[in-house]
Every structure is written in C-alpha cells, then in structure tokens.
Amino acid sequence: MAKDDTKLVHTGRKPQENYGVVNPPLYRASTILHPTLESWEARKDGGNVHKVGHRHVVYGLMGTPTQFSLMDALSVLENGHETILVPSGMAACGICFLALAEPGAHFLVPDNNYLPVRNLANGHLKRIGCETTFYKPGVTEAEMAALIRPETKMVWTESPGSLTFEMPDLRAIVSAAKSKGVLTGIDNTYGAGYYLKPLDLGIDFSAHALTKYPCGGSDTMLGSVTVNTQEHADLLFDTYLAMGYSVSPDDAYTVQRGLRSMPARLRQHYESGMKVAEWLKEQPGVLRVLHPAMPHDPGHEIWKRDFTGANGLFAIMVDAPDRARLKDMVENLELFGIGASWGGFESLVTTAYPENIRTAEPWEEEGVLLRLHVGLEDPDDLIADLRAGLDRLAGS
Ligand SMILES: *Cc1c(COP(=O)(O)O)cnc(C)c1O
User: Fold this and answer.
1) Quick one: pLDDT at residue 253?
2) For the CA of 93, the nearest atom of ligand 1
3) pTM, two decimal places
4) What CATH number has the domain bearing residue 228?
5) Are residues 157 and 289 in the same domain?
6) How many angstroms does the Cα of residue 313 sit away from the middle of ligand 1?
7) What CATH number should be reported for the domain holding residue 319?
8) Would you say 371 and 350 are in contact if contact means Cβ atoms under 8 Å apart?
9) Which of 18, 60, 69, 383 is spaced 20 to 30 A from 311 at the CA atom?
C-alpha cells in the first residue's frame, strides 16, 4: 500500500480518461440530460447512464465527477469508506449533529471545542429539543462513561482542542462510547487527515474544514465528513439533501489541487512553526507556549501517541496588562495578519478569551491568549517581526 504522500498525488485523478489532462476536469452543472425517458424515470436510482465508479451523475446538487474525485481522495487519505462534501468546515461539524438530532437527543461536546459548534448546540439544537453536555478536555474513560446517557446520540471530540490546544485522550473517549454503543465524531481539521487517522481509532465521523490546509490558499470555503460504513454515508447524505446543501465544483476543484501538495506544505508549516514556538518559549513576555508537539506541553505524550506530526498553528499566553501596548504589538506586526481561519500560506494572529467561553472546566491560565498561524514565510523573518512586537508589548 502506497504511503500518504503518494496517495495524495495520485488518487481521484484519471488523466487517461480525460485526454491526458493531469487534473480532473471541472464540470459545472445543474441539469443533467437523460437520453431516454427510461433513464429519466429511473433517475432516483441513478438512472441507467452517467455512472462514475459506484456513483451516478444525477443532478448538480448531488455532484459531478469534479466533486467525486475529491471525495475519493479524502476517503483514501482517511482510510474511510465514503466522504461527503459540504459547503464549509462548520457545515461538516454541523451535519453530524443534524443527522442525529431529534427531540430528547443528548450530545457530549468538549469544553474547548471550535466555538461555532458550541453555539449550534446552545442554539438550534436546543430549540429542537436536544440537550448538550460540555465535558472537560482531559476527561477520563470512567468520567466519559458516567456522562453517557441512554439518550446520548454522539460524543463529539476535537484534537487538539481549538484555541487552548489541550489534548483529549481519544482512545479513552472512544472506548467509553463504544462500551455504551454510542457514536463518536471528531473535528479533524488540525490533523488534516494526514497527521491523525480517527477512523482507525474507531471514530465514526471525521469532519474537516477543507478551507484550511487542504485548500492552502485562503481562498475557498469547503468541508467534508469521512465515514466507515455505507449506513453512515447514507445518514449524512440524507441530511445533505434535506438541507439542500450544494458544493461548488470550482471549490471542489481548488481543494483537490491543494491536496496534492498538502504534505509538503504541512511539513514546512510544522518545521517553521516549531522554530518560532521554540524561540517564543524563551522570551520573557511569553508566559507559556500552547503547542502539543513541544515536550514541555502537558498534552505531549498523547500527541506523540496519536499524531505523526504537527502544523503551523499554536498559541501563546502573553503578559499583557496594558491593552494599548497589546494593540500596538498586534496591529503593527508586518507579517502576521489579524484574521480568522488558518492553513493558508500566510501568517496570522488573533486574540481569544477561552475564560469567557468555558463552562465545564474554567480556563485559569494567566495572561492573554494569542493564537498564531505560522505561514510559509521564512521563520527568521517571522521571529524578527515577533521580537519587535514583544518589545512593543513590554513598552521597551
Ligand atoms: C475553521 C474551523 C472550522 C470551520 O471551518 P470553515 O470552513 O471556516 O467553516 C471548524 N473546525 C475548526 C477546528 C476550525 O478551525
């Protein structure tokens, strides 16, 4: 079996079926024409024409060979059975909940989860009669088993957690869920399908913001969920159709192209990120570096067990009692833009205040959290930029 880098270059591409063109063609479509009345009337079963592998081209909403090629590549990358595409990473997380939601349903969500999922749980899901318990990031197997109720539909996870980069013990969580017959899902955006293989750990839904590293260009919104069984694929696709989600073939095309070079980009983000993080760790104004790939991090042992690498995203706690100096530091960085998202080629910085969000376990770390995305710039230039920024923060 080929290694991931090889698979990512070759899967989902069939040049000889397309005049030798290297990339899969971009098919834009709403209407798909049928040659006969019989084909039209059998369209619910895919009709009897336009078959691509095990899929059918039926209507633009259900995808064309452009989306299919990305779905195949992601399924291969995650050792999964099938992948569905959705319009964003948030939609990828959301569809896992929506597919299982019903009055009385219960979900378990980590306290350090990507914030919009918390908002989904506390908003729309609550409105339709679902209840969510937020659990502490370091939950043990016994604690998780005790939180699971007869009406629990799914335990949601994220590794590492957003903003604070705490590492959950995924194996303990999955084991507790399995012993109670409960489904598990993960926001696998950080691992990008490359550094972490959730389906191999027994997780049922692996959701991604393809917007991030798979795209790599900060110019496309897209999400995916990879699953291990046709039953779960049907469950999600049913919700996809009910919601009328649709994924632009242009966006699917852009992401499949990004995916080809993702391993090489990820390695550079990881290496540069570590260099910047190690430098930051020694700076007096930096109280702590939150980065599970660094040996001092409390999540390091779990990270080493579950992950084969890291990326360019991490956070630092900075000593910033003076808001004006913090503003001066951040706004005058030359190479780090202030903005949401990450995984593109450029460096980013944002503030975040987990102390105002968490309910299961307070965030009591001293200082202000700055999340950094280390892009593909030369890390020495990034360090020089941050050095000047930390000087401004210190008022020196
Ligand atoms: C960005 C992000 C998402 C959402 O992705 P979008 O494509 O921006 O909707 C979900 N989870 C995590 C961890 C993210 O960082």
Assistant:
1) 97
2) 10
3) 0.97
4) 3.40.640.10
5) no
6) 13
7) 3.90.1150.10
8) yes
9) 69
- Arithmetic mean of pLDDT over the chain: 96
Q: Is the minimum distance from the CB of 187 to ligand 1 under 6 angstroms?
A: yes
Distance 186 CA to ligand 1 centre (A): 12
Q: Output the CA 47–ligand 1 centroid distance in Å.
A: 36
Cα(103) to centroid(ligand 1), Å: 27
Is the pLDDT at 282 greater than 70, yes or no? yes
Closest C-alpha to ligand 1, atom 8: 89
Distance CA 85, CA 93 (A): 11
Residue 53 Ramachandran class (φ > 0 left, ψ -120 to 50 alpha, else beta): left
**Same-domain status, 67 and 211:** yes
Instruction: For residue 169, give the nearest of 284, 306, 352, 57 by alpha carbon.
Output: 306
Over residues 53-63, the pLDDT tens digits come to 888 888 899 99
Whole-number Å distance between alpha carbons of 332 and 326: 10
DSSP letter at 124 equals: I
Query: For residue 40, what pLDDT is reported?
Result: 85
221 CA closest ligand 1 atom index: 7
- Map tokens 């779960």 to a residue: 232
Q: Which of 113, 114, 165, 219 to mutate to test the pocket of ligand 1 (most atoms within 8 A of CB)?
A: 114
Q: Compute the distance from residue 157 Cα to the ligand 1 centre, in Å.
A: 14
Distance of CA 300 to CAs 76, 170, 303, 305, Å? 28, 14, 5, 9
Domain that includes residue 194, residue range: 4-259
Give the C-alpha separation, 108 to 282, whole Å. 38
Q: Is the CB of 75 under 6 A from ligand 1?
A: no
Domains in the chain, number: 2
